[in-house]
Amino acid sequence: MYISRKHAPEGRGAKQPKWLLATRLAVAAVGVVGIFGLGYGFGTGTLHFKDSTNPANKSLPTKLDYSSVDDVYRAIKANYDGTLDKAKLLDGMKTGLAESTGDPYTMYFNADQAKEFNNQLQGTFSGIGAELGMDPQNNLIVVSPIDGFPAQKAGLRAQDLIVSIDGKSTSGQSVDEAVTKIRGKKGTEVTLRVLRNKKEDLTLKITRDNIKIKSVKWEVRDDGIGYMKVNQFSDDTAALSQQAAEEFKQKGVKGIVLDLRGNPGGLVTAATSLSSLWLPEGKTILQERRGQTAVSTELASGNNLLGGIPTVVLVDAGSASASEITAGALKDNGVATIIGVKSYGKGSVQQIMQLPGNAELKVTIARWYRPNGQNIDKKGISPDTEVKMTDDDYKNARDPQKDAALQFLNKN
């Protein structure tokens, strides 16, 4: 999903980029990034909202009467056997309001959560290094372990169902609740019980660490193929991918493998810059729609330094959001072939707004569509050639997906 920061917090610079997130709601930053709400002013009798531009919600009042909520508050205050915290009560109400949408990507962050959320988006966090989400049955799943970090080293894989955390069931838990339990100080250990392929029951002990992700790595192979691995779409992605492209061009590579496996997303501006390395100016990268109305279109900048070089994009179940935008844009514009397995399927658009006290609201405002007109939400992008990774491949460090890409490029 990508987020438009039209209400950037003070002190974070003048730029207000669009953001495209995968399901970064969790262990990647292993921060609490899963409770978003709306509204301010507990105790005034009403919650004040910015008037919605969505016609579907025009019948709702501009001010919500929450006197019945006040009744619950008074009952708790009078009868609860324990000490209540005003800030937590307010956060709980805002959280509940956001959750009432039934949309897992509409969330409320208090000030601390907002700060940690933004750190995650820049690839700086502490935890085990994995992205979490929910499957259609509301099971807690791994979207992707991040390459080279504790989760991957311990054997955690994309689409693993997390059954328990430190012996406690995840049934009924939200992503942010799971994150709270998984996060911790560097050097401490968390035990995850996971169900793989709906049949293999595993227990993994993972030692937490500080994590800083370099978004792009690349090399020119001895066979003349350029290999570019993009781990996530961050502030440094455009510059690093440009450096990679210049090296590829200088060394005259005969083909390129763009590896987006396990990439959960990030900045939509970074996805646009990366896609533009292959696409002529003006080519459509994505379109944003609200209902059936197009509200925004992202176009290639015309860099296309790598235009005309045969390219394979590698995707898997951990490729989400910005990864899917890039893969879809290159495929639909006829400049790349996709190999791997079906991608995650993240096609909704979010906007972040600043709230008082440095809190933030992330709310789903639209859907994004590929150049071919398809929305991939909960569907993903199917590869041109499907190549799976087996358990034996993982155990023996084999990579048949990458091998298939190299074989394709060496034959063409």
CATH homologous superfamily heading of the domain at 213-347 and 362-411: 2-enoyl-CoA Hydratase, Chain A, domain 1
Largest sheet: 8 strands, mixed
- Specify the CATH class of the domain at 213-347 and 362-411: Alpha Beta
Radius of gyration (Å): 22 Å
Q: And the CATH topology of the domain at 213-347 and 362-411?
A: 2-enoyl-CoA Hydratase, Chain A, domain 1
Task: Bin the strand percentage.
Answer: 25-35%
Structural class: alpha+beta
Give a nutshell description of this structure.
This protein has 412 residues and is of the alpha+beta class. 25% of the residues lie in helices and 29% in strands.
Describe the protein in words.
The longest helix is centred in the N-terminal third of the chain and has 14 residues, at 86-99. The radius of gyration is 22 Å and the shape is globular. Residues 1-52 have low confidence and may be disordered. With 412 residues, the chain is of the alpha+beta class. Strands 1, 2, 5, 17, 18, 19, 22 and 23 form an 8-stranded mixed sheet that branches. A 6-stranded mixed sheet has the order 14-15-16-20-21-24, sandwiched between helices. The chain has a 4-stranded antiparallel sheet with strand order 10-9-11-12, with helices on one face. Among the domains are: 116-211, PDZ domain (Pdz3 Domain); 213-347 and 362-411, 2-enoyl-CoA Hydratase, Chain A, domain 1, CATH 3.90.226.10. Helix 6 (237-250) packs parallel to helix 7 (268-276). It contains 10 helices and 24 strands.
